[in-house]
Structure formats: C-alpha cells, structure tokens
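Subject: two folds for Thursday's group meeting

Dear M.,

Sorry for the delay on this. The cluster queue was jammed most of the week, so I only got both jobs back this morning. I'm pasting them in the order they finished. Each block is the input sequence followed by the predicted structure tokens. Could you check whether the formatting survives your parser before we put anything on slides? The first protein is the one we discussed after the seminar.
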Amino acid sequence: MQQLTEDEWKAKLTPEQYHVLREQGTEAPGSGKYLYNDEHGVYRCGACGIELFKSDAKYESTLPGLIGWPSFSEAASNDALVLSDDNSGGMRRTEVTCANCGSHLGHLFPDDSSPNGQHFCINSAALDFEKN
C-alpha cells in the first residue's frame, strides 16, 4: 500500500482532490469532469494511479439522488477496491477506497438500472482517465 504523509498528499494533489481523496469529501453533483465522459479507456486512482474501472463498466444511472456522479457497475479487478461500512452523516453506506493508497473514491449502492445491480458512485476528482 502506498503511504505518504498528509503534507506529501497536499503537495501532490489539487485542493479539490485532497478534499475528496484524503478527507472523504464529495464534489458537487453534476460538476465532475468525467460525469459525461464516453471515451474508451481506463479510470485510475487520482492519488496513486492504479487502474480502478474500465470505460465499458461506466453507465448512466437512473437512481434518484445519485445521478450527479460517474457511475460504474464493476471494478477493473477484484483487488482494486476496498469496501467498508460508512455510517457517517447519519447514513448507512458502503465506502469505496483505493486498495493501493487508501484514498476515498465514493460509495457503493444497490441500483436496478445497473447491468449487475451495483452502483459505484465515484467522484470525478478521485479519478484520472487514460484514453485508449
């Protein structure tokens, strides 16, 4: 697992990336640069660069309240993500973090509009996109 000090993360990331990735923040709905991205490629962790999602797993969710962030139906690999309980803010959710650096990416929800019933609701600020 990649380990950096908080000062090193602050130097490496933009303020918005730091807020989302390291402080478990959320970007404003509808504001993310990858929300409407339909190019082919891979989405990587914005902090450490490991591959998290493939573009063919990206879909348009119809789940009310969750349509303002990029949606993915599955991870690029079984060991790319860590899922854990998140009971913050008076809600019960499943937090999604990068398995390599522990950065916060977003949350996982059930979603009938997803090809497999899973909705990885991920902040664009937590991602980098590599076109192929």
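Second protein, same layout:
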Amino acid sequence: MAVSLMDTNFTLEVKDLSIDFITEEGNLNILQNLSFGIQPGEIFFLFLESGCGKSMTALALTRLLPSNLARFKTGNILFGGKDLASLQMSELQRVRGKEIAYVFQEPFSSFDPLQKLGYQLTESYLYHSLGTEAEALKKAKYLLETVGISDPELRLEQYPNQLSGGMLQRASIAMALMTDPKLLIADEPTSAIDVTIQLQLIELILDLKKSRNLSVLFISHDIGLVSYLANRIGIMYAGKLVEVGTVDEILDNPSHPYTKALIQAYPKNNSSKVRLGAIEGRVPLPKDYPVGCHFQDRCSERLSKCKDSKPKSTELSKTHSAECFALDKAHA
C-alpha cells in the first residue's frame, strides 16, 4: 500500500516487501506487498492482531529472520540511502544495533542472565567502536538515569534477575539508545508489564522522540495506545497492510472494514452502556490466506469480487489510503 507523502525524506521506507516462509508444505507468503515510510522524529504505530505477522515484520526490516526459513521475494527496505534487503551481511551488521535498535516484548529475554547489566549495555557501543570502555560506562550510567533508573552505578553491577520487569524494560531502552540510533523498533514493549509502568514507558518514548528526533516503529495489538503515541498508523491484517493514515484519519474516519470493526470493538471512556462490536471468525493462518481479499470471510461489506481478486490501494488523501473494493466507486 503506497501513501503519498510528497517531498518527504524518510528515515525508513519499505516498498512492496513480500516474504515467503519455507515449510514442508511449501512456501507460505507470510508478508505481502508491505509499503510504508517513517519520517524523522515520527512514531509510526503498526497495529496488528496476533498471527498477522508482527514479529516477522519487525525482524524482517534488518533481515534477522533465519535465512534457511525466510526468503525475500520482492521489495526494498530503504534506510540511509541503502537498501537493507540487498546489503552484504558485513554492511548490514554495521546498521544493526547501531543505526537501528530494537526493544522487544519480553524484557527478561532481551538480556543474558549470566552477564552483568554493565557489560550488556556497553557491548554494542564497544562493538561498533564508538569510544572507550570508560566512555561507554559513563554513557550507560547517563542513559539509565535518563530512563528513570536510580543508582545507575549499582545497577550496572547487577544481573538481570535482580531488576524488576519494569526496570529491565527501561534498561532495554537504555541499551537500545547506547549507539544513538536513528530508528527504534519497539515490538510490543508494553505488553509484558503492568499498566502503571506502561504509562511511564509511553511517556519515556515520547520524551525520547522529542529530545532526540528519534524515529520509532511501535508495533502493538493494543489500539488503545494509538491516540497517546502515534503520529501515523498502519493497520495490518493477515500479512497485508490494509490502511494507513494519520491518527485523526484512522480514528475519526476509518475506511477499511477491518479498521472500522476494530474501533467499534474498543471500549470508549464515555460509553460504558454502549454494546461493543465484535469481529466474527479468526485471522486465517498463512497457509489458508484467501486468493482474494484476506478479510473477506469476516467482512460485513464484502462484494462478489472480493473472493477472487485482491484490492489495490485507494488514495483517500495525501496521507490516507486503504485497500478495499468498496472504496473504488466512492473515490473513483
């Protein structure tokens, strides 16, 4: 899905990305024709349900998917004037962890339980030859304070199991920032921690975006976070990006039937007596993706051609587009 953002320089631009997963049953087209861009200092919120390709998308951007299982079929991943999809591994390793950093869902899995926090925070900084060990430790202390962890000198001497989940998630953000990346990929970073810590982490990410002009790809299945975090939103369903727009465009004027259903299913603060909507059925497995529109079996607006044909992107504005046959006539 292409969205026209005229004369825009993207930190990251994904064009027509398709990835197959190699299985005993044959190649499964897990991600299909993804196209989106993230501007400097922007939080792009990628919403998708479990089973829609969340982790595949996050890992595919720096080719962290296992090469014996995943095959890049088409597309480009443009970053810093280079196409990450075709870089030699030696060049790609200079980008990973330095210019693009990750914060993952489960903070305890982001750290080696046998290594002290100080070693793990400084490892990438030293690997990319950004300074001395003393400079790395100084920066690690500063970043731990920046993300709200007190007594950083003590924390650097501790092991991961000596920190709470919330503290460890903050430490994982500090670790990601050690190399001053241009892009932070946050894959469900708030789902494994309690609500109070979630709000603190959201405020932290917003502060970092503002103070560092940091670009953020925030991947989540919690659409309630959108209005707090995002500049723009991409709605993904069963391996396809079905709608992209600004926060106001998506929340106030959703155009794809799936986006409409999602918003109707989410509780509003002032509507406790209103019956919530429900989306019948389940997200299809990749081996069961329909020939036509992937949402057809659950869609209340489906047309006869949805069964056998894939809809193309309809441009609704310079920043808003959706893939749905029902939009063709209205915006012809």
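Two things I noticed about the second structure. Confidence is low (pLDDT under 50) at residues 2-7. The chain is about 30% helix and 25% strand.

Cheers,
T.
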